[in-house]
Specification:
The complex is a heterodimer of chains A (355) and B (358).
Chain A lengths: L1 H18 L1 H19 L7 H26 L7 H17 L4 H25 L4 H19 L19 E2 L2 E2 H19 L1 H11 L1 H6 L4 H27 L10 H11 L11 H20 L4 H20 L19 H10 L8
Antiparallel strand pairs in A: 1-2
Helix pairs in contact in A: 2-12, 3-7, 3-10, 3-11, 3-12, 4-5, 4-6, 4-10, 5-6, 5-10, 7-8, 8-10, 11-12, 11-13
Chain B lengths: L2 H30 L2 H7 L7 E2 L2 H6 L10 E6 L5 H17 L2 E6 L6 H14 L3 E4 L8 H9 L4 E4 L9 E5 L1 H15 L4 E6 L6 H13 L6 E7 L5 H14 L5 E4 L18 E5 L3 H9 L4 E3 L3 H16 L7 E4 L12 H7 L11
Parallel strand pairs in B: 1-12, 2-3, 2-4, 4-5, 5-6, 6-12, 7-8, 7-9, 9-10, 10-11
Helix pairs in contact in B: 4-11, 5-6, 7-8
The chains are: A mainly alpha (355), B alpha/beta (358).
């Protein structure tokens, strides 16, 4: 009997650990990497491949950080990709015209942040829903970018731009280094500042935040502005990586950024999320798509697998606090209800402000 | 087993097994694909008239019998090729003395929008329609609607699947062969390389890949390591390229069916010495050819498409009979050929020129 009790305690601890989004994702990544390493031993588990994955993942991580601000405050931003393209065009046009890299990048960051500010004002101040406001921005920005670039791409960028996405900072790919800086900055804002606390609070309950005296509009606008800023950083990184400015350069990132953030535990609806989870969401998706590419799987099958994994990952991640049916029901031995409630109580919103 | 652990392992392991299964499924699919569709990709375009570069530079539109109202329905305005076709069409309209109205969809996923655009033009009342079809089959309805209303149609670019339009095309299959022969000529000792195949659902891209594969059959020393498929998106193309080179690190050459799938200046430094060949001759490729980062471009004659297409339409409106399918030339442009004014005049429009459409 003692053995059974001990086993019960041990199982409870391990179950608590496994309910942590990060650990779930980490184990998923490890399992997926192990399978790919077995399937493609000469290609997948190599330093070169890890480096290349980190180059791609670094940019996606910064875009996902951007999206996390919008998600945590209770909205979302589907103009992320269009904003990246806009930043790409603005900075590329300036640099291709002979302007300096520093000013070109600054111009791009300013433009992207400005777009975030406008989104924030539309949503926070004017009460336009996030979907409509950012859909409007998306459409406007694609048009503006193409108008500015005559519908084409902008080449002839200075070689020094490669320091922001193509070359390495010592032994570290530049995209990884920039992503680390962006992550640190975002962490300080979300976890160590009053602004972060307010952003989480507004996402948790806008009305409660308002009654508590939090200037809701101001911090909602700030969240979207930060979303715009980090999006601009990702746009500059992507431009530097491909050495071309293009209005459609970030296409796909609007959904990938939402997907990776949500896989990482950021709640659609707001109030919950941790950057560590977002990072692991990015790693999972990057490992998945890289392995599929190395395996020579065609584009259509890749889309199908990626879609299935996205849904699967979110279901598993959600299961830690789900009150409704979840994928763990499939593997459940106990009666439903009690466990889910316990899970919700022990591991639900209590994570909210541990950015 | 702990149910959470089981879920997580499912998340991690299932995609791996899916990968294996899908690899096998894809191989089976390749071997069982319908002979007709494969044959269509792997065969040269039938042409009723084939034009040479010398011939196309001499083409001028006839004076219109009256000031016809013509609409040009484009796939998109975003892209150098599309802008080039618009430039050619506008110039031909000026030379012929006709009114030209441009309208554009928003890319390869917007066939419905093109059909609406054409129907709107027909409602407004036009004498002729120039169309660059979004999809070979999807645009058939729009063409047939126009013809049914007595509006003659000339299609350019993608070959629309109806004989009711007179068509001006460049044979993508032959372009792929030209690229293969160039690679083989430059690498007499052979070598391995990657084909950046472009969108997996675009006929032009698939035919260029098919032509390239067939073109290399005569040169067994030149081997294709991998064929990728990606949208015309430099970021996606670069990611695919870096991924496949993990599995196939030896890259002596790169063939991109269109240059923006992997712009020459996006090629990782590690592969900078690989022979780079790509479809399209635009300012990006001109710079790359001059800088030596690209060995050759395969021009797509954007301006010619618009100019000759509209000229043909005016001829048709004037009562002339046209060949059903007219083909533009295929060839290779290296740094040396860039100095040819004929080549540049058919592919590059003035800096700052911009098409506007409704």
């Amino acid at each position: 009997m003692l053995g059974v009790v001990s086993s019960g305690i041990s199982q409870s601890a391990s179950t608590w650990l496994l309910r942590r989004t990060e650990l779930q994702l980490l184990l998923g990544v490890v399992a997926l990497s192990a399978v790919y390493s077995l399937l493609y031993p000469a290609s997948f588990p190599t330093l070169g491949n890890v480096t290349e994955m980190s180059r791609v993942g670094g940019i996606l991580f910064v875009a996902a950080i951007a999206q996390s601000f919008a998600l945590i405050v209770g909205g979302f931003d589907i103009s992320v990709a269009a904003n990246m393209g806009f930043v790409s065009i603005v900075s590329a046009l300036y640099m291709a015209g002979g302007g300096s890299v520093v000013f070109g990048v600054a111009l791009g960051l300013l433009g992207g942040t400005g777009v975030g500010l406008i989104n924030g004002l539309l949503i926070g101040r004017l009460g336009v829903t996030p979907f409509v406001a950012t859909l409007g921005s998306l459409t406007f920005l694609y048009g503006l970018s193409n108008q500015l670039s005559d519908g084409g791409s902008v080449a002839g960028l200075p070689t020094t731009l490669s320091w922001l996405g193509r070359s390495d900072w010592g032994p570290i790919p530049s995209t990884v280094a920039i992503a680390c800086v962006a992550c640190a900055l975002a962490w300080v804002i979300l976890a160590r500042s009053r602004a972060g606390l307010y952003i989480f609070s507004i996402g948790g309950s806008r009305e409660t935040a308002r009654v508590s005296g939090i200037p809701v509009v101001r911090y909602e606008v700030l969240a979207y502005t930060l979303c715009g800023f980090f999006t601009a950083v990702a746009g500059v990184m992507l431009t530097a990586r491909v050495s071309v400015g293009q209005g459609t350069l970030g296409q796909g990132y609007e959904l990938l950024s939402v997907a990776t953030a949500v896989i990482g535990g950021v709640a659609i609806g707001g109030g919950v999320g941790r950057l560590s989870g977002v990072l692991l969401g990015v790693v999972l998706l990057t490992v998945l798509t890289t392995g599929l590419d190395i395996g020579g799987i065609n584009q259509f099958f890749q889309q199908m697998v990626t879609g299935l994994v996205l849904v699967g990952a979110v279901l598993i991640a959600r299961s830690r606090g789900a009150k409704a049916a979840s994928i763990t029901w499939l593997f459940r031995r106990q009666k439903p209800g009690a466990t889910d409630q316990t899970m919700a109580a022990s591991d639900g919103r209590s994570n909210a402000v541990q950015a | 087993m702990n149910r959470y652990l089981l879920g997580i392992l499912t998340l991690g392991v299932a995609p791996g097994f899916l990968t294996v299964g899908l690899s096998a499924a894809a191989r089976a699919e390749e071997t069982s694909s319908s002979a007709t569709s494969v044959a269509a990709l792997h065969s040269p375009q039938h042409c009723d008239l084939s034009l040479t570069l010398d011939e196309i530079v001499k083409i001028r539109p006839p004076k219109a019998n009256k000031r016809y109202k013509i609409a040009y329905s484009m796939i998109s305005l975003a892209g150098y090729f599309y802008q080039g076709t618009a430039y050619g069409a506008v110039k031909a309209a000026e030379d012929a003395g006709v009114d030209l109205n441009l309208n554009a969809s928003q890319g390869f996923a917007t066939q419905a929008q093109q059909v609406s655009n054409v129907n709107n033009e027909l409602s407004r009342g036009i004498d002729g329609l120039l169309i660059n079809p979004v999809d070979v089959n999807g645009a058939v309805g729009a063409v047939e609607d126009a013809v049914a209303k007595g509006v003659p149609v000339v299609s350019i670019g993608t070959l629309v699947n109806t004989t009711k339009a007179d068509r001006l095309v460049q044979d993508d299959y032959t372009q792929g062969i030209a690229a293969a022969e160039f690679v083989a000529e430059k690498l007499p000792n052979g070598g391995e390389g990657v084909v950046m195949g472009g969108p997996a659902n675009a006929t032009w891209a698939l035919r260029r890949v098919a032509g390239f594969e067939d073109g290399l059959k005569k040169f067994p020393k030149v081997k294709i390591s991998a064929v990728t498929h990606e949208n015309v998106d430099p970021a996606e193309g670069l990611a695919r390229f870096t991924n496949v080179t993990q599995a196939h690190p030896k890259v002596n050459w790169i063939y991109s069916t269109y240059n923006l799938q992997l712009p020459p200046n996006s090629v990782p430094t590690k592969y900078a010495k690989a022979l780079y060949v790509a479809g399209g001759l635009d300012p990006l490729m001109v710079d790359a050819l001059k800088a030596g980062t690209a060995a050759a471009a395969l021009p797509d004659y954007a301006i010619t498409e618009g100019y000759v297409g509209l000229s043909n339409l005016v001829r048709k409106l004037n009562g002339e009979k046209l060949p059903s399918i007219t083909c533009l030339p295929n060839g290779i442009v290296t740094r040396e050929e860039l100095s040819s004014p004929d080549m540049t005049s058919q592919n590059l429009f003035p800096v700052g020129w911009k098409a506007t459409a409704h």
